[in-house]
Amino acid sequence: MAKKDAPPRWDRKMQQRLARGEAAALGELYDRFASLVHGLAHRVLGDERAADGITREVFAHVWENPDAYDPKQGPLRTWVATLTHRLAVQRLRATETAALTQEGHGTTEDLERKVRHASVAARADYIVQSMPAPLRAALELAYFQRRDYRQTAADLDVTEDEARRRLRLGLQLLSTAHDAGAPGSPPGYGGAA
Description:
The chain is 72% helix and 0% strand.
C-alpha cells in the first residue's frame, strides 16, 4: 500500500508534463477540471461572463506557473479549486468595492458578508462534487426530489438503515462548508492555497 502522504500519481505526472510545457497536458487538465473551475467561479461571482474570465485566468496561471503546485501539499484538484476560489473572491471584492465607491450605498460589512456567503456556497458545491457518488445520490434524492429516507432507500435499492447512513454522512460533510474560517480566508479545500 502507498504511503498516506504520497501524492496521487496522476497529479505528479500532470505537474511534470505542465512543467515541460506540454500543451496536451493543459488540454487534459482543462477537460478534467474546467467544469469544476467554472462552477466554483460562477457560484462565487453569480455571473456567467465573470466565471468564464476566472476560468481562463485559472488555466493561464496553471500554464504559466506549473511549479506553483506542489503535489506533496495535496491533490491537484484541491489546488485548482483553491486557486479558483482565491481569484474569484479577489474579483468579487474588486467589483463590489468599485460598486460601493460609485453608488455610495452599502458598507464594507455588507461586502464581507457577501464574500463569506459566496465562499460557503462555493465550498458546499465543491464538497458535493467531491463526495462519493452514493452519498451524493442520496442527498440529491432527499433534497432536490424531496424524498424521505424510506423513498430514498427504495429508489437506490438499499436498506433504510443504509439510506439514513448515507444521508447522515453527506450532511456531515456538507456541514463543514461553514468551517471556512475568518472572512477572506481560503475556503479550506484541504490543500495549499
